[in-house]
Amino acid sequence: MRMLLIHSDYLEYEVKDKALKNPEPISEEQRKGRLDEVLAVFMSVEKIDETNPDEVVEKAVEEIKSVAEQVKAERIFVYPFAHLSSELAKPDVALKVLQRIEERLREEGFEVKRAPFGYYKAFRLSCKGHPLAELSRTIVPSGEAVSREERNIALEKEEELKSYWYVLTPEGELVEVDKFDFTGHENLRKFANYEIAKNRIADREPPHVKLMLEHELVDYEPGSDGGNLRYYPKGRLIKGLLEQYVTEKVIEYGAMEVETPIMYDFEHPALEKYLNRFPARQYVVKSGDKKFFLRFAACFGQFLIKKDATISYRNLPLRMYELTRYSFRREKSGELSGLRRLRAFTMPDMHTVAKDLKQAMDEFKKQYKLSMEVLRGVGLTPDDYEVAIRFTRDFWNENRDFIVELAKIIGKPVLIEMWDQRFFYFILKFEFNFVDNLDKAAALSTVQIDVENAERFGITYYDEEGKERTPLILHCSPSGAIERVMYAILEKQAKLQARGVKPSFPLWLSPIQVRVIPVSDEVLDYALYVAGKLEGARIRVDVDDTNDRLNKKIRKAEKEWVPYIIVVGRNEKEQNTVTVRRRSDGRQVEMQLEDLIKEIRSQTEGFPYRPRPLPLLLSKRPKFRG
Question: How many CB atoms within 10 Å of residue 214?
Fold first, then answer.
């Protein structure tokens, strides 16, 4: 069962039409309903609940009671909501479960209303908006009815884990999240609310989706599974440049690049145990009588390489890296959202072997700074993302100064999630999280200190005395998934656009950096000459040779976020100059072509380059959408 619990000023509904052939019979009075000062509980009863509906009812009631006590709610609104799951129970089972939950909550002393089952309904609610106002819960029946492939212990435990939430200031003050003054830190407030609620469902389309389609970057692929996308030439260029940039930064940092398989044996003992320690849903494939899973990170292959390697203390810290194209996670369909959350994604994944906790923490801090540097290169500064740091209470007590230093490095308050005991394989983790225009957060960069998997996989090193020792392992993605970086770039530009600022890509990522527009066919030869000089200087340039009017050509280039527009006419041809319109400041200046080349090179130096992804002449280009 999936539940979304929203503490609300009110919830009201009105039945519109049948959603099932045989919905629950209702009276005229039941076609509308409302409760004020209410805990609204949106519910999806799932197929797995059919194995033990009574247990699901009792677990659900306990969860609802617990949340109601925390928010001091005396009224409960049970609302059937099929959109929380793609694996729904049979309608008759679902209705009985909902009816029984309604009865049990009344027995517990709550005032309860339940919306009718099997109908399309319009509803309105007013969420109270405090940190506990939006929460999600997953109920899973126990027993052997759930297969190993369908069940992930880490995902289940993650739902049950008791978290304590704080905000840590750069001055070292640890404040309970509901007592922190978020004035001036509105983005952090949104992030804290999102993390505590754990509601990953996207109820509407985020703005970056419109942008990725308008710019013909990325599109949905109806011929594949959901969350698998197609990339048009401009999108592939941006994605390829990002892949190259992050890889170069990691190799420059000192990692060795490797390549490993994308599928692994379910029966491998170390892999089987790791699957139940990593909170991700797997894709399962069969080959003959054997079952394999598609990797969801590069851990498996890199761990197996390290297991077979002979490692000396002199080799440490030992850094290994792979850009996984692709990693696979079978996310729920309601959570899939453009480039933000996918089922197939490209993950830059570095794993570092460290001899002890001191070396691991030193690497952790260096990789924290590396992640900041990588994001800055793609146009994301600390103002654009929020930091979450997660650990146990014991780790905090023993390493408080280290955690405070991380907050000082980022220079602003960070969200802390603390646990009484460690469940996951890591003892310390950070993430840089982008909060988008729908107030949803997505993790970008992350580093974790892993204290389990070296022993699980048999990874060892030889110390100064020649004795075999078990190391620690750091998991690091300095950017997060490449697709998520694209999402964050587009969402940031959507925010700027909403504030009246011209959106743009970082210059080194712009699919076309310069567009040359001849005012007439008479100067097309000069436009091509200018384009040739720019292309020779490794600048992506194209020429608008269409029959559109000049103003329309300029508007078209503006709509495509082209950073530099060059208009050439008879005067420019005669004087061998160019008239340049800069998108960044809106200025139009006449200059020598060599000066423009120097200006562009000064902004793109140190970043990777790829040639223009489309034909030089706009008249030769296909239209990929519409």
Answer: 12
